[in-house]
Amino acid sequence: MRSSLRLGAALAFALVLGPVSLFAQPSLLPKSGEVGEWTLTAAPERYVKESLYGYINGGAELYLPYGFENLEVGHFSRTPGTPSREIAVEIYRMASPLGAFGIFSVQREGDEQSAAALPNPNWTLPGQAAFVKGSYFVTVQGVPADDEGVRAMAMAIARRIEPGRDIFSDSFLNVLPAEGRKSGSERYIKGEPAARNETQFFSLPYWGFAEETTAVSARYGSDGIKLLIVDLPTQPPSLDSSVREQFESNLEGTRISEGTISARNSAGHWFLFARRGRRAFFVFGKTNEAEALEVLRRAFGDSTSEDGAARPAD
């Protein structure tokens, strides 16, 4: 789910609504003329939790679980120029660096390019860029595509934001095994909309994503095997049997061996599930069972302490 479609719809909606809510936070948008010949076309638009629904029609539910605090939107134009060119900027302030990374991560596919000049993590597409720095998630889009202008605008905004802590060193993300992990594929999943987008198996309420359950995911190997690690606030006694029922209803050849539930779909993709205390593990993708089990084995090793107890999530 890339942000371009969502961003385009949201910007069109914002042109009708205009500014909704003001907040005391200083603007992070460059001033007119600060980035080449790009000039602000109107006063910045600012949104808080209550007004976000008016800006992202139907999409606010994705942002709020990640700790959305406020949003600043700016529209820039460049003159002279034929045809006219515009750049739209969205600056989301979240409650934490992990929340900013989370909302960034679930809006990328994992195969986008990145730019060394922008803060890490970031992704770039023709005429678009997005990055995370500190507690901010920033998107920049040119219409029509203007890679040079978008990059310059993104760099100017990044310079205005204070750096944050390393989210991989002291967060739930560090349970993802480093060996074989595809860089840029990592996701932090929080809230029901993000969970449903990740896999249909998270669509049922017993997972608890509407409450405190969170998950991380990444892809491994040349075939992009998906690993998901779920942190559960409690140890639901019926989780294993519920997952087995899901497998039996949607997949083929479901069986249990040494505490691991496995099955395949009609395309031959393997699906594995296991649980260790408050941690649940999914592995699935176009692979063979042995490779899937190896990814699962690595996940067990990286997500448990020396005594075998599940590590607490942040």
From TrEMBL:
Keywords in alphabetical order: Signal
Signal peptide (residue range): 1-24
Annotated InterPro entries: DUF6599
Top-level division of the source organism's lineage: Bacteria
Annotated protein name in UniProt: Uncharacterized protein
